[in-house]
Write a structure and sequence with these properties.
Layout (H helix, E strand, L loop, with lengths): L3 E5 L6 E5 L2 E9 L3 H14 L5 E8 L5 E5 L9 H11 L4 E8 L6 H18 L3 E5 L1 E8 L4 H10 L3 E7 L3 E8 H12 L5 E7 L2
Helix pairs in contact: 2-3
InterPro entries: Impact, Impact_N, Impact_N_sf, Ribosomal_Su5_D2-typ_SF
Organism: Dokdonia sinensis
Pfam family, one: Impact_N
């Protein structure tokens, strides 16, 4: 089971590609929601208020399961699709790439547009810091104090991350572990009589 994905750690610096007097400014942003996508596009529309097109593509989800490409008035599949193609080529998710065009008075034709938007997206992603991250599962356990040593031993041996702990009348831990190891680790806790598994959830 693949439990890693690639994304970018922070927004890229602005890049510029020129073709026949048209200017194409490329940007890459880390995003996790469609609301964040809208915010970045609105900000770029204010920044480049004299531009003609703000074309983009994004991919969301740690399993690369949601995406969209937008030509923003350019001929069908001449802008959004080549931008999305670069997201696939760089194998990244939770990323938005926007290419802003200032029309230079000379038409580029569909093949010219495809090349320009693909290049703008490529330059933006080359200019971003790509990082690999793990898909983790969080779960909660609850137990009485006498079982503290048994729980801590599993946590230490399996390199489980303690996200949160509450030691009041009893012990309540929120834990995180890589997805591919989660089932084995949770079974280890279940095997200790008195440790209760309360919830399992894949982290976003």
């Amino acid at each position: 089971m693949k439990d890693t994905y690639k994304t970018i750690s922070k927004p890229s610096e602005e890049v510029l590609f020129k073709d026949k007097n048209s200017k194409f400014y490329g940007y890459a942003f880390p995003v996790t929601t469609e609301d964040e996508v809208k915010e970045h596009i609105e900000a770029l529309k204010k920044q480049h208020y004299q531009a003609r097109h703000w074309c983009y593509a994004y991919q969301l989800g740690k399993t690369y399961d949601r995406y969209r490409a937008n030509d923003d008035g350019e001929p069908s599949n001449s802008a959004g699709a080549p931008i999305y193609g670069q997201l696939q080529s760089f194998d990244v998710t939770n990323v938005l790439v926007v290419v802003v065009r200032y029309f230079g008075g000379v038409k580029l034709g569909v093949s010219g547009l495809i090349n320009a938007y693909r290049t703008g997206a490529q330059l933006a992603l080359e200019n971003a810091k790509i990082v690999k991250r793990t898909i983790d599962v969080t779960f909660e356990i609850r137990f009485e104090y006498p079982l503290m040593n048994a729980a801590q031993r599993i946590i230490k041996e399996r390199d489980v991350t303690i996200v949160e702990q509450n030691l009041a009348l009893d012990c309540h831990y929120v834990l995180s572990i890589r997805q591919k190891e989660a089932e084995t680790v949770i079974d280890q806790f279940k095997a200790v009589y008195g440790i209760k598994i309360l919830a399992e959830d894949e982290e976003e």
